[in-house]
Amino acid sequence: MTAVGKLVVLNPGEGTRWQIGPDSFRTKGSAKERSESFSVIEYEGAPGVPGPPAHAHRTFEEAWYILEGEVRFESSGKSIVGKEGTYLYVPKGVPHRFEVQGTAPARWVGIFSPGRFVALIEELAAIIPANGPPDPKKIVALFSKYDTELV
Question: What is the pLDDT of residue 87?
Answer without folding.
Answer: 98
